[in-house]
């Protein structure tokens, strides 16, 4: 009887570890991936805005040179 109970607990413990591992994979890792993607997108947006300001300065200098 006690051996059967130990086998049941081993199976239940293994199932619990598998379920918790699946929860880790489906909750923590996608949020980290999303955070990583958002940080890359914000960095790219920052570079794009800096590039637009650079083009604005060049355009203003060309206009000022023609005056």
Would you kindly provide a written description of the structure presented here, covering whatever features stand out?
With 67 residues, the protein is an all-alpha fold. The chain has one helix at residues 2-66. The chain is rod-shaped. The chain starts with a helix and ends with a helix. The relative contact order is 0.05. Keywords: Membrane, Transmembrane, Transmembrane helix.
What tags apply to this protein structure?
mainly alpha; 67 residues; membrane
Rg from alpha-carbon coordinates: 29 Å
Number of helices: 1
- Give the overall pLDDT as a whole number: 82
Order of helical and strand elements: H
User: Unreliable stretches, pLDDT < 50, 5 or more residues?
Assistant: none
Beta content comes to under 5%
| Strand segment tally | 0
Quickly give the structural class: mainly alpha
Sheet with the most strands? none
Straight-line N-to-C gap = 99 Å
The assembly state of the depicted protein chains is single chain
Q: What share of the residues lie within helices?
A: over 70%
Global morphology:
rod-shaped
Number of spatially distinct domains: 2
Transmembrane segments: 9-29, 35-54
Keywords: Membrane, Transmembrane, Transmembrane helix
Give the topology, please.
Layout: H1 2-66
Characterize this entry briefly.
The N and C termini lie far apart (99 Å). With 67 residues, the chain is mainly alpha-helical.
């Amino acid at each position: 009887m006690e051996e059967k109970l130990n086998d049941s607990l081993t199976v239940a413990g293994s199932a619990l570890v598998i379920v918790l591992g699946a929860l880790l994979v489906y909750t923590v890792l996608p949020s980290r991936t999303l955070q990583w993607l958002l940080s890359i997108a914000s960095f790219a947006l920052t570079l794009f805005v800096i590039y637009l300001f650079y083009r604005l300065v060049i355009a203003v200098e060309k206009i000022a040179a023609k005056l």
